[in-house]
Amino acid sequence: MAYQRRTGGGGGPKRRFSRRKGCRFCGDKDLVINYKVLENLRPFLSERGKIVPRRISGNCAKHQRKLTTAIKQARNIALISFASSHSKVD
Fold it and tell me: DSSP state, 30?
C-alpha cells in the first residue's frame, strides 16, 4: 500500500503573523482600571456592548481580568449599558 507524502503546499489560506500588541495598562502605569473611570473602559467594549477579548485588545491576562470585573461593576450600577439599544421596527 502506497502512502502519499504530504508536502507543505497545502490548500488553506496563509496565516498572517503580526507583531503582538502590548498591554496598554502595563505600558502606562498612570492608567487606572476603575469602574468609575469610563474613558478607560470604553475602548474595550464593542459597539454591541460586548467585552473585547484579550487576543484582540492586547491586554495581559491580569489586566484583562481586572478590566472585565470593572466593566461588570459599571454595568451593575448602570454606568454602562448591558447591550446596545435595540431599534424596534414597526
Answer: T
Distance separating alpha carbons of residues 73 and 71, to the nearest angstrom: 5
Q: Is residue 58 part of a domain?
A: yes
Give Cα 14 to chain centroid, integer Å. Answer: 24
pLDDT tens sequence across 61-87? 999 999 999 999 999 999 988 887 666
Distance CA(80)–CA(14), nearest Å, equals 39
Residue 61 CA to residue 10 CA, distance in Å, equals 34
AA identity, residue 33: I
Tell me the residue range of the domain where 64 lies: 42-84
CATH classification of the domain holding 63: 4.10.640.10
